[in-house]
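Methods: example folding runs. The two proteins below were folded one after another, and each record is reproduced exactly as written to the output file, sequence line first and structure-token line second.
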Amino acid sequence: MTLLPVIFFENDVKLIFDSLVDSDLNPKVFEILKFITIIFIGSFLFLLYIHKGITKKDKFILVLEFLVTVILASLLSPIYWFTFYFCFFHGLRALINIGIKSFRDIIFLIAFTLPVTFFSYFFLFHNLQISYLTIIFSVLMALTISHMFLPLINRLLLSNFKNR
């Protein structure tokens, strides 16, 4: 889902990638990324449709989340979309996967992620200059790597706790 903006804002995404690698990337790269993203979307929808183990309610929620994500990717510039996606949707999904289930937990999560999202949008990116992109993406990469390990750490801690 991270590459959805390449479908709607190919030139803007190319500019971001070019500035991150300090080079002029071949436009074919973005045509390939767009193709891969479209194939992924089709595969996701097809597999969701044919999978019998997912309840209708969960399929509805997944399709709704998918549609909101695509709509936002088509309306927001790539940097703003990525901020919203990363800070809100992706974080929410990751935390739900590690066990946040109650309404109170969701409200708590929203109370902490929306301010970060709005701060990023209005203060950090309002006068964004390309030179800040390397810092922003480096920080986001560090956060992503650490939060990829969060479910594993959570499972290990829970299994150690249950074994006592």
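Second run, written to the same file directly after the first:
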Amino acid sequence: MKRLLWALSLVLLTVSFVFSKNPVKQKNIQMSIYNFTFENSKGENVNLSDYKGKTLLIINVASKCGYTKQYAPLETLYEKYKDKDFVILGFPCNQFAWQEPGSNEEIQRFCQLNYGVTFPVFGKIKVNGKDAHPLYQYLKEETGGASIKWNFNKFLVDKNGKVLKRYLSGDSLEALEADIQTIR
């Protein structure tokens, strides 16, 4: 009986340790999209809570990708809906064939000069692996847990901070816009 109790205690201790080390696995206890902080392109901390009450489209972006041309229709989408509390948040990532090699300053210049991007493009992050930014760990967990496959994956978040849907790089921007229009 003592061995059984000892073994059960060991199992419970192990399980509690595992969950205490990964806050994303504790989802819906206290995690929220608004708990995350990241750096802007100048290295200053930004809290996602600054965007409470807005519909968010969170995207991992890259300057030297076949999907980079999406910057233009994404900027059009941003301009069309920004007065309706819609914000696009771009997160440069160099994990896919090294297609975002520039510095944060170079990335900003590229986006503005080539595509007239006015939505926020933040500091470079990782979206996969052990060094993935906690925001992306959370977004992936909220949408089934699959890793990010390529640049320009998108996550639509409603005004209450609920992650509604994940879009792959080649998914229709028209369908994405239709989804945005349904959010009030």
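Comment on the second run: Residues 2-21 form the longest helix (20 residues).
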